[in-house]
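Quick one, T. Sequence first:
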Amino acid sequence: MSETGGFGLVPETVLRDGPLGLGSVQRWVGEPEEPLEEVVDIVLRARLRPGWVVGFEAEDLVGREVVVAHRDGPRMRSMAVLDAVLNNADRKGGHLALDADGRLWGFDHGLVCHAEPKLRTVLWGFAGDPLDPADVERLGRLRAALEGDLCDALGPLLTAEERVALTRRVDRILASGVHPLPPRHRYGIPWPPV
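Structure tokens:
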């Protein structure tokens, strides 16, 4: 879905048989000896870095106000849109990184595409913001593909109910024109967040 929509945020992912059965494997990004740069952090509010936005507020173990913050920028905003489309129930900070070229990647998409709303993410800093025009175009491309061959291709991976929910999420986000807001009646943050 990342590639079909033109997001380009998820490394190549393939199905493979493993010791516990069928599963997915993602292409390795970066060099093993060079750590990828973090894009999400927990900091004291006073230490919020320029170019970062607050995802949500919390308290540390001694009662100080901290924030879970993430970088701003078009690719981060696109990742938040893609996660909303995928209904990602586990977008932790450790599942996002910049490679040596500064390109953002998202990893570990094992809890996505459930039919029920399950979005849990650290990327709430964009909640309620208007969608970037490029993301609207990507969503339109994805929506058109869901009317065509993409839904059939997803058949072996998603139930019919999950495919319908996916299409409805794309429609809802396009109709609203804004990044989704955190849920009011359930916990919208993964644990641990980073």
